[in-house]
Write a structure and sequence with these properties.
134 residues, mainly alpha
């Protein structure tokens, strides 16, 4: 069976880039008691998209490699969860050196991106590995 790695990784990445700014906006709206500036979402779409392009490429390469090496979709998705989380955290570490317990507000940006990457990895169907499809 033919794999759908290219479309799978693109869907996972686009879900994160498009949904995460909305989640961040909702988080700030709930914690601050008022809606943040309207420019926040488009700004995050642009910066999130640009800064995550290397992660898209690396996630695609890792996914292609895992599809060729593994014979179980679940195992591939477990690896992609770990790799996607690391690749999501890398730009935050590179730009600000933040930790998971940073209270500057920047770490609040990591969690939506990381959660949507992981959710996308498990939500979308990856085909063509071994005999099982998930």
């Amino acid at each position: 069976m033919k794999t759908n790695v290219r479309y799978y990784v693109l869907r996972v990445w686009l879900t994160s880039v498009m949904l995460s700014p909305v989640l961040v906006w909702l988080y700030y709206a709930c914690t601050d008691g008022s809606a943040p500036d309207a420019e926040l979402i488009p700004l995050m779409l642009v910066w999130g998209g640009v800064l995550s392009l290397p992660s898209l490429v690396f996630l695609g390469l890792f996914c292609r490699y895992l599809v060729l090496q593994k014979d179980n979709v679940k195992e591939v998705k477990i690896w992609l969860t770990l790799i996607g989380s690391i690749l999501t955290y890398a730009p935050f570490l590179f730009l600000n050196g933040v930790s998971f317990t940073d209270h500057s507000g920047v770490s609040a940006l990591f969690w939506p991106y990381g959660a949507t990457i992981v959710a996308g990895v498990w939500f979308y169907r990856l085909t063509g590995i071994g005999h099982s499809n998930m």
